Amino acid sequence: MTMDDWLADTRRSYDTVAGSYADQLRGAIGGDPYLRAALAVFAERVLAAGGGPVADVGCGPGHVTAYLRGLGIDAFGIDLSPGMVDVARRGYPGVRFEVGSMTNLDLPDASVVGVLAWWSLIHIPDDEVPGVFAHFRRVLRPGGPLQVGFHVGDTTRLKTEGYGGHPMAVHVHRRQPDEVASWLRDAGFEVEARWLCDPDELVPQAFLFARRPS
pLDDT digits over 34-68, tens only? Predict the structure, then answer.
């Protein structure tokens, strides 16, 4: 499958489920102290780096972007799916949301002080992840933080239905934190911390905290 193929499938799938996805995630952050803690740490690191614009890459319906703004962070959202961006703009008027791909991030060099990528890398094939991390490093200012959230595991599955029973066609990649950390270091990041959440669940979740060196 070519990049154009899986990107088109991912875009089409999330256009289809955008409304249902937003409904399902409404209140997710408020109900999970670990998600709130991860965002609080990220916000603190952004402010420690001097503050400034922050890119929420793969922002979906915009709830994380809006939460960051509530923490005093100048966050804006980018998502591959125009449907998701429409939902985000309706849900959070006045917040900047734009259509874009992390595989070809259309931001100037050193233009943001932080990058957040929560459960958006899960659809990126292994051989494309280093290029994505290179884009993240390119757009970050020196010293700027990066936070990545993802499913933990060693498998890839094709998701054909989700979020209200709508049809989808996206590959979901589960990865080990050591593997993702290695890719980050290869891209020139310093890995500062890692969290493992729900370790006894079938599919644990992980956060990696990194930064572009000063």
Answer: 999 999 999 999 999 999 999 999 999 999 999 99
Q: How far apart are CA 177 and CA 151, in angstroms?
A: 9
| Yes or no: domain 3-211 corresponds to CATH 3.40.50.150 | yes
Q: Where are the domains of the chain?
A: 3-211
| Entry pTM | 0.95
Residue pointed to by tokens 């499958």: 1
